[in-house]
Amino acid sequence: MTLYAITIPVFARYLTNLSAILKKGARHAAKRKWGDKKLLSMRLAPDMYNLTGQVQYAYFTALEAATKLSGRPSPEFAYDEATVKELQKSLSRTIAFLKTIKPNELEQGRGKKVGTFLLSPKQRVTKEQYATALALPNFFFHVATAYDILRHAGVTIGKDDYLGA
Q: Is there a contact between 106 and 8 (Cβ–Cβ < 8 Å)?
């Protein structure tokens, strides 16, 4: 399997799924008259990021991986979303960017070493190690945690929502 196949389409699919469950979360919050602020500030534990942070780190990780693996510059994001609508816009922008990446862009430079915020500043790993041991696990951690926050809040979602169609 190619580096592209295990990353870019996976990121796009799960960000699409995250967008769908976030919509369900927003409908759930609206029915309870919570508002975006209450929904987006929910977290599983005091030392974990809230729902906003989980969504941001999910799309940030996908963006970082896409740019580190392809060599392209990253689109600019402010990471200051305060509403579900703003988070949805960032998810849509990220998915659109991912869809512009071509398989050959990732296959060039196989074995090249890259750094990431997930490592100490001087550490480097191969693109393959970065994708499989750092980017994908970190991405899924944040997507799953966002899902878990919504489930914990009472949103009616299940494994089919997480995995997608």
A: yes
For 30, residues 6+ apart whose C-beta sits below 8 A from its C-beta are none
Nearest to 51 by CA among 76, 28, 70, 68: 28
Rounded Cα distance between 140 and 146, Å, is 10
Q: Is 153 exposed, middle or buried (0-12, 13-18, 19+ CB in 10 A)?
A: middle
Domain positions in the chain: 8-163
The distance from CA 71 to its chain's CA centroid, rounded to whole angstroms, is 19
Confidence of residue 152 (pLDDT cuts 50, 70, 90): very high
pLDDT (0 to 100) of residue 165: 79
Is the predicted pLDDT of residue 56 greater than 90, yes or no? yes
* Residue 118 clears pLDDT 90, i.e. is over it: no
Q: Which CATH number fits domain 8-163: 3.30.390.10, 2.40.50.140, 3.40.50.1110, 1.20.120.450?
A: 1.20.120.450
